[in-house]
Design a protein that fits this description.
It is a single chain. The chain is α/β, with parallel strands linked by helices. The protein has eight helices and ten strands. It has a single domain (3-243), classed as Glycoside hydrolase/deacetylase (TIM Barrel, Alpha-Beta Barrel). Helix content is 40%, strand content 18%. The strands form two sheets. The chain has a seven-stranded parallel beta barrel, surrounded by four helices. Helix 4 (108-116) crosses helix 5.
């Protein structure tokens, strides 16, 4: 049986987390870089505990103005410090709230930059390991981020997206281009089924691209996210895909 972890980005102040979290099994919690503060982190951790959703950190470039979607001119050492500080903050709050963090997924520009550039991938991986070597690092399949994590012994989840379009080279289509977001629930489900059942995804130009994933993301920051998440979860169950809740 095919098994997948469903994840979503949350605690960002732009979505109804209580509406979408019941349909996923892992939450990527903004921890101050692009969004989030101590109050939202605690609230989201409590929601995760209440709903039985695994909690993870969602660190970013320190860029609240652009929501972490622009690459900042920081050295790998500075990026490592940013990631370490954000993850460590959420770890302290999670301990106080009685919930263990399971994973770390970089956000936005940091995620994409570390996926392509080994120095930044290694910086992120080192920072995560310094916080807790039992944490899982999430990144794109066949990326520098996954390679860097595996090289230092971190567990990884290879991630694909149900609601983002892909390019022919297997990268995500830029949000600045038309068609980057997939908002139709049926189209999201069709893409998820192609990825999980057939290990391929249709790129924006129509080409089929091979892909393998351990976890599937559906974003919470677009209108109708909770409806798409419910439709996706129910559709995958009908297709025989088991939805897993990860643990430590």
């Amino acid at each position: 049986m095919v098994t997948v972890i469903l994840n979503c980005d949350c605690g960002e102040g732009v979505a109804d987390d209580a509406a979408i979290l019941p349909y996923v099994t892992a939450a990527n919690i903004a921890c101050g870089g692009h969004a989030g503060d101590e109050r939202t982190m605690r609230e989201t951790l409590r929601l995760c505990r209440q709903l039985g959703v695994s909690a993870g950190a969602h660190p970013s470039f320190p860029d609240r103005v652009h929501f972490g979607r622009r690459v900042l001119p920081l050295s790998p050492e500075a990026v490592a410090q940013c990631v370490h500080d954000q993850v460590q903050h959420l770890l302290r709050l999670a301990e106080a709230e009685g919930i263990a963090l399971v994973h770390v997924k970089p956000h936005g520009a940091l995620y994409n930059h570390a996926a392509r550039h080994s120095a930044y991938a290694e910086a992120v991986a080192r920072a995560v390991a310094a916080c807790d070597p039992q944490l899982v690092l999430v990144g794109p399949p066949n990326s520098a981020l996954i390679a860097a994590a595996e090289a230092i012994g971190l567990r990884v989840w290879r991630e694909a997206f149900a609601d983002r379009a892909y390019e022919r080279d297997g990268t995500l289509r830029s949000r600045e281009l038309p068609g980057a977001l997939i908002e139709d629930p049926s189209a999201c489900l069709a893409q998820a089924e192609a990825i999980l059942l057939h290990r391929r995804v249709r790129a924006h130009d129509g080409a089929w691209v091979p892909i393998e994933a351990d976890t599937l993301c559906i974003h919470s920051d677009t209108p109708g996210a909770a409806v798409r998440a419910a439709f996706l979860r129910e559709g995958l169950a009908r297709a025989g895909v088991a939805i897993a809740r990860p643990t430590r």
